[in-house]
Amino acid sequence: DSPLNTTPWNADTLYDPLATSLRMSDYGYRNKNQQKLRISQNSLDEYIQTLTCATETLDPDYRRIGVRSADGEWLQLNNHVLQIENEYYSIARPKPAKRPGQRPLAGLRQGGIEYLEIRILDVDPFHPVGVAPETLAWIETFLWWCLTAKSPLLEETERFMKEANLRLVAYEGRNTHLPLQSPSGQKSLGA
Predict the structure, then answer these.
(1) How many folded domains does the chain comprise?
(2) Is 157 contained in some domain?
């Protein structure tokens, strides 16, 4: 059962006029398996610890598939929740300095964060080159504010709210009356 309200675009294509980012929905890189993950972004140490756990925890569905076929062909790298840390798809990921052959979590552990990869942004279909310079300036200003503003740790219930809101916005983000959850109650997207 799909949360999308698809409309034919042409003979070969469907679209949802309210959807904003299928890439950020269950149809994109974020699968239902990853919804079970508890990756903390409260600190770099917690992020490394929880993401390492996801790459070392067996997944029953992937275990049933197996790692190799009967004739020895690779089916997958391993049968863990995440096969490698790069499979974790989130709105932002801390990235280490690149060193040849080094895994990302090892780089974060040894050298810290070189930059933050913002993955929630899509191109603007209403702009001829995909993004306006003033939009980029606003995003940069907002990210600097996020870096310097005092921010409480994200509790588990708030994390679930955030994930549910992200899915709702992916499917219906153009609906300005979309009800989103917050710790202080329900708010509409346009508020």
Answers:
(1) 1
(2) no
